[in-house]
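User: What would this chain look like folded?
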Amino acid sequence: MVVAYDDAELVEIACVTTALDGANRFGASPPYDACLVTPGGRPVRCSSGLVLAGQAALERTRGPVDTLLVVGGPGHLAAARNTSLVGHVRRLADVSRRVASVCTGAGVLAETGLLDGRRATTHWAYAQELAQRYPAVDVDATPLYLRDEHVCTSAGVTGALDLTLAFVEEDHGPALARSLARMMVTYLQRSGNQAQISTFVGAPAPAHRTVQRTIEHITEHLDGDLGTAALASLAGVSGRHLARLFLGHVGRTPAQFVRITRAEAASQLLVSTTLPLASIARRCGFSSAETMRQVFLDHYGTTPSRHRTVHSSA
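Assistant: Here's the prediction, encoded as structure tokens.
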């Protein structure tokens, strides 16, 4: 059951419902019966301007419900202020096996109180807003999706597809989920712990020239000495000052940035080459394949070998 409202994000609705329909085509048993539920059963105008017909009225929907999922979109704040909508989401959550949100739909779940005391994620650009509005929620902007008991939250837009594939695998096994992912030409599946944003594309270059030069050196010399002392010497500042600059402009210490950059460079080599793990570890500056494995587990929630197998089969 997908809950939508005016100014919802169409892509999120489509990712969920198309994936479930695809699972049915591959023999999901029992099959999914996706239903778009809206306030009053009325059509909703999505943020793209397209209008979707509601299939059922939120107010008149009764349980039990297998999966209740609230999508996000620019209209999420108005939806969270709609006491009727929030109340009915809360009511249906009580009779649902699984409750989920995509993107800023987490704000609607938070308004119901369902996320209080739970770890939750949302689109990285709205994580701070969610944390400020709902201090009882443990907001983590990094993962693609999170599960806390029967409540799941996911990152923005196409993160809906990652979450739905995880549901399909949970419900019907990895073979069906893999077939579905290959049909949809997507990964099976990005780990929920995988970062929403790559270091290489996640943010514009820092304005501070010293930080810029240091980052350029890091990305061009991954197999070199990238300890904080060495980087500080190269930048002509103290290690403590460089750490302050990185925290202020990048949001990470130099050591954290180096660790993540090496992991993401290794991930690219794993899926684009047949190099042995030891060679990839050496090229990316890890002291050993085991060190790379530990960093991968921390950053991606999976091992390098599993990462290579999953992504090369997508």
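Residues 254-272 form the longest helix (19 residues). If you want, I can go into more detail on any region.
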